[in-house]
Each structure stands twice: as C-alpha cells, then as structure tokens.
Input
Amino acid sequence: MIKVNENFLRLKSSYLFSEIAKRVQEFQTQNPKVEIIRLGIGDVTLPLPKACIQAMHKAIDELGQASTFKGYGPEQGYSFLREAIAKHDYQQKNIDISPEEIFVSDGSKCDTGNFQELFSQDIKVAVPDPVYPVYVDSNVMAGRTGEFKDGEYQGLVYLRSTKHNNYLPDLPSQKIDLIYLCFPNNPTGASITKEQLQVWVDYALEHKALILFDAAYEAFIQDSTLPHSIFEIPGAKQVAVEFRSFSKTAGFTGTRCAFTVIPKECFIYNSQGEKINLHKLWLRRQTTKFNGVSYVVQRAAQAVYSEEGQQQVKNNIAYYLNNAQLIRKTIQELGFHCVGGENSPYIWIECKQDSWDFFNFLLHKAGIVSTPGSGFGKSGEGYIRLSAFNSLENVTLAMQRLKEVFNS
Amino acid sequence: MIKVNENFLRLKSSYLFSEIAKRVQEFQTQNPKVEIIRLGIGDVTLPLPKACIQAMHKAIDELGQASTFKGYGPEQGYSFLREAIAKHDYQQKNIDISPEEIFVSDGSKCDTGNFQELFSQDIKVAVPDPVYPVYVDSNVMAGRTGEFKDGEYQGLVYLRSTKHNNYLPDLPSQKIDLIYLCFPNNPTGASITKEQLQVWVDYALEHKALILFDAAYEAFIQDSTLPHSIFEIPGAKQVAVEFRSFSKTAGFTGTRCAFTVIPKECFIYNSQGEKINLHKLWLRRQTTKFNGVSYVVQRAAQAVYSEEGQQQVKNNIAYYLNNAQLIRKTIQELGFHCVGGENSPYIWIECKQDSWDFFNFLLHKAGIVSTPGSGFGKSGEGYIRLSAFNSLENVTLAMQRLKEVFNS
Output
C-alpha cells in the first residue's frame, strides 16, 4: 500500500494568498462596480527593464539557429551569469564571493523551500515570527515539527518580531541549529544593521549553527549603512547561506530567476561531528533534482547587470519606494503605528484589531486588498501588510480612499 | 550543531555524466585534432521550432509593456497551456484527462525527483535496472535505502531489464508500494505494449501501489499500437501519475518545460488505510516550494500545439529517428545485438565487455562519445547507449568510423 508522508497532513489547509484571493473574489462578485486596488500580494507591476527585453529577444534568436542553439546548460547556471552576479553584487562591493559559490535557480521560493533537505531531521529550527510561510511549511513537510496548536507548530522555535523589540528578534534562549533570517524583512519591512546582524553571525559561530539569510529585498535598501549581504559581516562565510532573487529587484516574478550563495568555507556536520562541505552537498542536490534555468531567462538576468539594466532597475525601485513613502506618510498621518517602507516595498501597520477583521474592513470600505498579518504567524496578529507594488495612480487613489474612510 | 541529512552521504560520489565529461575532456586535451562526435548524453541539437520562437518573441514584448506585463502566474501553470495539453495530448486521443489534472513544471527531472516527497519513508520502492539515475538518487536522499553495496542500494527493489526478458521487467515477487516505469525507456529505448502495461496497472490496483510513469520519450513512438500514455490503460487513473516533457519532444532541454498528470481519482493512503487525494497533495507541495514556469516559456510550450508547431515537431522527431535507424542498422550490420531506435532516440547496444572499457574504446578508436550502460545500474553492465540526438552528418560520420574500426 502506497502511504502518504504524514507530515504533509499537519499542514494548515490553505495557503494565505489563496484565502485572500477567495475573499477578494467574493467581494468583487457582490460589488462588481468597485475598482479594487491590490496592495496585498507582493507582486511587481512595472514592465521588465528594456535591457532584459532586448537580451531575451537576442537569446531567443540564438535558440532558433542550429549553430547557436542551447540544450542542457549547467545545473548551477551559466558562467556568464554567475560571473556577472559575483562581480556586481559582491566583488565590486568588496565582498569576497566567487562565481563558483553562486547557484542560479528559478526562484528563491524553490531554494528556501528545498534547502532544508540537506539537514538532519532532528535539528532545531528557528523561524522569524511573523514569517514568510515557505520556511515553516517546508520544515513541517520534512517532519521537523509537531502538530499545529494555538497558532504554532510544536517543536519549531519562533523568533518574535513585534513593536516591542522594534521588529528585531532577540537571540533564542535555547540552542538552535538552523536559523532563518530575512532582511529587509518580509512581511514587516524592517531592516537590520551590520552590528545587529553580527550578533546572529556570532551566535551561529559559537553554536555551530547555520543561518539561511533571505535577501530578496536588498535592492530596496537606501540607507548606505545597512548591509545588502550577510557576507559583509565578518565570519558569516562559515555559517551562512544567502538567497537572492531577481523577482523584486528587476520585476522577474513571472520570468523566474534567483540565486543562492554558498561560500566554499561553509561547513555542516555529520553525527560524528566531522565537517561536511555544504557547497558540495547543494551541488549534489541540484544536479540530481534540478536542470538549470531557461537560457533565455539567464540572459535576461545577465542584462540586469549591464549599464542600462542597472539604471532601469534603479528607476523601478525608486518608483516603488516613492509609492511606499506615500503609503507610510498617509498611514502615519492617520495615526497608525507602522514600520517598513523606507528600505523595503512593504509597510507593516499596527491595526489594533483582528488582522482579518481589518483586512475585511479595508476591502469593504475602501476596496483595498491588504495582507492580514496573522497569515504570517502569531506575532503578525494585530497587523496588516501593505505593498508598494502598484502604480502611483492606484496607490494615490488608495491613500485618498483611506483618508476618506478614517477622516469621515 | 547543524547536522547533515546523512542519507546524502550514501550517494555514490559522481553523477554519470560528469564522469563522462571528465574522460572526454582528458581525451580531447591529449588528442586536440580529433573531432569528437557526441552520441552520449541525450541532449537535442536541432533549433527550437519556429512556432515556439515566434510565440516567445511575442510573449517578451508583452512583458515589456505595463498593460500586458505578467507577474506571478499560477504555480500549476497558465490555463492556456494546461488546456492545450489536455486537448491535444489526451482528449483528442480519447483519453479523459482535464486541464485541472495537469501541473506544468520546469522539467521532468525536477518532478520525478521531487515527487517522492509525498510518500512515507517506509514504503517499498521498485526501480527499473538499468534506470534513469534520478529515480534512485532522490530516494536515497530521502532515506528509503540502505548502503550502496555490490552496485546496488540495499532496500531498493531493482526490476531487471535485459536481453533475457526482452528489456521488459517481470512483476516483482515481493509487495511493492511505489513503482517507477519509463517507456519508451531511457536508457534502453525499449517500448511497452498496452497488454504489457495493463499487467503493471493490474498489479498496482491489486496491491494499492502507485506507478510513476515517465513518458518523456512518447513523441518518438511510431508503432500505432503502442500506448503514448499510461492513461490509455483501463484502471490506470486510480494508480498512476504520468510525467511528460517538452525537452525531447520539442527541443526544450535548455528552455525548460514539462508537465505532470495526476488524475483526480488517484488516491494514496494514510497509516489508518484512509484515502488521501494525491492531486491535492502535489498541489500543496508545488504551491509551497515552486513558483511556476516562466511566462515566456509557457507561451513557447503552447505554440508546440499550434498547427505549425505540430508539423515542426514531427519533422524534428523524424530527423532524429532517421539518425536512430542509421545507427541501429550499422550496429546490427557490425554483428552487435541492440534494442531501441525504432520508437526511441536511444539505441542500447550489447558490447560483450565492460561498459567503461567499451566507452573508452569507442572514444579512443573512433572519437565517439557513448554512455556506458553500467552508469545506469548493474543490469546495464555489458551495454552502452548511443543517442540519435546529433546532426545527420555527424551520425553518418560516426557510423563510417565505426565500420572502419570494426571491419579493419
């Protein structure tokens, strides 16, 4: 008899964004005339940078000719892209990362979801709270948690990030083996300083722990003192893996390209305490279960690093951050406490009521789709997330509606 | 202390094709003047069909305009592609598969590698021998095997497929829960009749087993009596999942698109023997750890089903099968026993000596890269695989060289 992986049955039934989509659809059906403004899911709206479009057209023409056709590429990504990433995102910023340490993939969701496969089932895992659900659910599926009870999975350590600690979790009191961190944070939009990140790297060095650092939003950092990469922190290369994505940086959510950086000096341990090279382990995983990213998409990603590409990406980020500032300003003027929106496209708003109630209130009174904070975990209760990924026109209109709702 | 998944440490160190690449590179360095002809790895060489090229250019222009830009798509794939697949590959052939039962992905390697996540760790798994290494390695990583000993992983059931059973494995004598089958087969090129496949479906129905059916090479089937899909077999929808790919069908090895079909009536079981819907389970896996295939690539795949696309794909398949016939004929004239090459791009040749010795012989005497059969498992020892994926000119030249080597 073919038996199920019973860990899957522990998962809460629905993914946050499916529930939102359902509620929005119901509202729209009942109110067909309302022009809904979507500030919920963090999906980009600006077109792909022109440099990427041009690069893709060129790549496609190569695929149409036998002499330039491309079949299977390297599972880790083409050298042209890995070299561009290493040079622009790391070496030019004095971070010593080589092209060989970079693994190109079709998304950070896949990489952050699959990465836990490399570890023993009995490790102790800590996740931020609120949290990007993929970190949690992938560990539930792998059997590293108990049942879901009182809004939490038993066995998982939640790193509370609320107003009370300025959205920066304290070090865990118990010994942790695997730590997920995300800065600029999704969903809160909070950022971390070098000094604060050093504390986590030191913890990992001391306890032989590993940090999975999700930097999908680093391109939004404006404050020049903040770290873009965990590898700016001394010692991090021994104890950290970094996930980055072109999704939010260059509008690739539907084009699909990301990368994961595993320094060659990063080691984990077998049960005898002997060192195991993490880079080789992920290479084995990827060569076995992944076949590389579409050639056309890798050429598009490479174009992000061209002079024009860099300028176009900067313009897009500036556009979204202008939206974010507008949201932040309006929300604060209306008397709400919030964080984010300065080095992040997300604004995390304390709503002083049940998250889903406030979600419904915004939807029904202002036709605005938000994301209820409780969908990101227990510490998200009492908050909602607004995203700056929309047109300036829509964001302006949404803020006008909010003012009318709250000032009337 | 962050501990490794020790199952990974059981894996044999190198992936077959890396070893081949290493040997070929060494030979080329020592013999820079030899023009090596690659009939080893099964990678296509003809350019992408024109219909796909056109569709991709159009899709890219959509991504360059805000009004037609596409962000995140559905994890399961766009409806336009799922509908085209269901209609052309199934419904028009009187196979009752709906678009909702199709999951678009970036490759059958990923899907066949990831699919085992859905099952309990203590199921009994059977794989063909010789076998596509991904089926085996992904189960080793998941901890469903013991150590590698005498060319086999302990605990795994190997379904021998050799000259003696006409490359069609017998039903296992012990009770199996999960069965991997691949027809037309990689690496042997052997095919299966409807009657022979019915035997496996009946076995699965009787034992509540599940068949993972890899049909990546179905487009090469010429014999109209052979099944293209396991769902042509009565009862299969309850006990089978089918993996298909655009890689070999339409030259997508570097473009990356495939799909997996999970009928809604397919169930697996929990430890109490209660039914669990497999379709929902994979949907949960994919929505958690996957973010869909690039929009541009999905439009290219859709174009495979256009009238021009279908004709172009047929022409390409015919071109490769002509190569295959040439290889098969030459090999047989030279007195070797072989299988495949008629409904498959692969020719599986009995070499009556050690596989790697014969690999070296062909490389050094004829400058031909083959794939040693032993790389696919114990029953592959004494065979090599030649692939028809190359130009007619190269295949013709390779066959001339073979004749000279063996007739001199």
In short: Chain B has a mean pLDDT of 97.
